[in-house]
Amino acid sequence: MSTLLAVEKLDVRHGLLQAVRQVSFDVAEGETLALVGANGAGKTTLLRAIAGAHRPAGGRISFEGGDITSLAAHRRVKRGIALVPEGRRLFQNLTVEENLRVSSAARRSGSWTVDAVLEAFPLLRPLRHKRAASLSGGEQQATAIGRALMTNPRLLLLDEVSLGLAPVVVEGVYRSLAVLIQGGATIVLVEQDLARAMSVADRVVCMLEGRVVLEGPRGALTREQVTEAYFGLRRGATA
Amino acid sequence: MTWVSAVVHGILLGGVYALLATGLALMFGVMRIINLAHGSLALIGAYMAFLFTEHVHVSTYLALVPVLPGALIVGYLLQRTMLERSLRAGQLVPLLTTFGLLIVIANLLQYFFSPDVHSLDEGNIGTASWQVSSSLTIPWFDVLTLGVAVVLLGGLQLVLRFTQLGRELRATAEDADTAELVGINARAVYARATAIAVATAALAGVFYGMRSSFDPNAGANQLLYAFEAVVIGGIGSLWGTLGGGIALGVAQAVGGQINPEYFALSGHVVFLAVLVARTAMQARGFRLTLRGVG
Q: Residue B243: inside a domain, yes or no?
C-alpha cells in the first residue's frame, strides 16, 4: 500500500500554547487510523492542521507525495482532503440538501452525489428540504459526514463523530462508517471511546500532551497498553 | 385624494432608496461590512454615465452597458486590495477604511468634475406620466425605478436561493472557516459579493442622477437614506430592504404633505421609531427569557 498522507515533525501552536509537538506518522491508502488520547492531547488541532484550518508552526505535511503544508484549506479540499469538524458545524440556515450541494465548490467528480448520500444515510431522505438548524444531533452528524463525502475525498478526517449523540445513534453512524471503510476509503478518526476506536481502526495512534506516545497496528496493541499511554501512567518510561 | 397621491409617490420614491440600499444590505449580510463609501460609489456610477452621455453621445440607459461591468471590476478590486486587508484587522477597521474612501472619492470627484451640480438625461420617459385623476399623476420614470428595484432584489434573491454562487455566499456569510473546509474560497466569494454590491450601487447612482441633480458631496446623504432603508427593513433581508425603502419613501412623502419642511425629518423619525421599537422588543424578549429560566 502506498502512503497517502505523511506528517513529519509537525508543531502547531495556539498562541503561546503548543498543542502539537513534533508529531510524525503516515497513513497508507485504504487504511483507517484512529487518533486517541485524553481531552487536550492535541488531536483536534492535529486534524485541523491536516485539513488546513490551522497553520502549523513547523514541520511538513505531504499528501499524495506533494507538500501541502502551506496550502489554503479550500485548495486541500480540491486535492481530496475532507474534514468532518468537531461539533459538526453545519450551515444552520441552509437546508440539508443545500448543505450537501455547497460542497460541489470543491469541483471533484466521483461517485458521491446527493442521491448517493441519501442512499447511505436513509434517515436524511425525509429531511432533505429542512433547515439544518431544525435537525437532531444524529441527523446533523449524518449531514456533516455527507457534506464531507460530497467533495469525493481521498482522505476523510473525522473529529469526534460520536460526541453528544445517543448510543443508538452512534451505532448508526458507525454502521455507515463501516460501509465506507469496506469501500476502501482512507480515514483518520478522532474518538474518545477507546473500545470503539480499536474496533474500527487498522492502526491506533495515541497522543498525550501534544506528542505521540504509542503507535501500532490494532492487533499488536492491548487495551491495557493503550490505556496506560492514554493517561500517561508510564510517563517516565516513554519519555 | 392628495393623501393617496402622497402615499403613491412615497411608494415610488421607495424604489430609489431600495435600489441604493441593496448593495449595502448585501455587503453587510455577507461580510458584516458597513460600507460607508456605498453612496460615493453610487455617485461614481452616475459620473461615469455622465461621461459616456457627454462624450460618446449615447443615452443614459445605454451608458449602463459599459458602466455596470466596470463597477463589477471596481468592486472586485476594491475587496481584494483594501477591504480584505481591513477585515483581517478586525470589525472596526473596514468602517474606517470605507469612511476614508468616502472622503477620497468626494475630493477626487470635485477635482475632476468641479463642485457644480450635474444631472443625467432620463429620455422621453422622464416627462411621460399617467393621469389617474385630477389630483393623482404617476410619472412613468418613477414606476420604472421601482420596477428595476423589484427586479434587482428579486433576481438577487433567486441567485441566493437557487445557484451554487448563492449557496456559497450564504454558507460563507454564516461560517467562513467551515466554508473553506468544504472547498469554498471564502476570499473569492467575498470579492464576488462586493463586485455585485458595487454594481448595484452604480445602477442606483445612475437612476438617482436621472431623478435629481447631484454634486460630488451627494454621496453621504444618499448613504444615510440607504442605511435607514436597510435598518427599517431588517438587517440582512433583501425583501425587507425593499419594504424599508418603501416605508422610508412613504414617511417622507406623507411628512412632506403635512409640511414641506418635514420631508426629510419624518423619514428620520420613522427610522428612529423603528430602532426604538426593535430595541424595546429585544429587551422584552430578554426579560421573558430570564423569567423562563427562573
A: no
B88 reaches A (C-beta below 8 A): no
| Type of residue numbered B31 | M
Q: Give the minimum alpha-carbon distance from A237 to chain B in angstroms, rounded to a whole number.
A: 39
DSSP A61: E
Would an 8 Å CB–CB cutoff place B182 in contact with chain A? yes
A53, A91, A93 ranked by CB distance to B180: nearest:
A53
Q: Which domain holds residue B87?
A: 2-122+134-222
Give the number of other Cβ atoms within 10 Å of residue B182's Cβ.
27
Give A157→chain B minimum CA distance, Å: 11
Q: Is B174 on the interface with A (CB under 8 A)?
A: yes
Max distance between CA atoms of chain A, in angstroms, equals 55
Residue B249 lies in a domain: no
Helix and strand counts by DSSP (H, E) for chain B: 12, 2
3 state DSSP class of B115: coil
- The domains located in chain A, with CATH, are 3-238 (3.40.50.300)
On whether any CB of chain A is under 8 Å from the CB of B180, the answer is: yes
Between β-strands A66-67 and B129-131, what pairing exists: parallel, antiparallel or unpaired?
Answer: unpaired
- Alpha helices for B52-163 (secondary structure H): 60-78, 84-88, 92-113, 140-162
- Whether B231 is in a domain gets the answer no
Q: Which of helix, strand or coil describes residue B101?
A: helix
Helix (H) or strand (E) holding A157: strand A155-159
- Per-residue confidence of chain B (294 residues) as pLDDT tens digits? 688 889 999 999 999 999 999 999 999 989 989 999 999 999 999 999 999 999 998 999 999 999 999 999 999 999 999 999 999 898 899 999 999 999 999 999 999 999 999 999 888 887 888 888 888 888 999 999 999 999 999 999 999 999 999 999 999 999 999 999 999 999 999 999 999 999 999 999 999 999 989 999 888 888 899 999 999 988 767 888 999 999 999 999 999 999 888 888 999 999 999 989 888 888 776 665 555 443
**In this complex, which of B167, B177, B185 lies closest to A53 when CB atoms are compared?**
B177
Sequence letter at residue B120: L
Is pTM beyond 0.80? Reply is yes
- Provide the number of structural domains found in chain B: 1
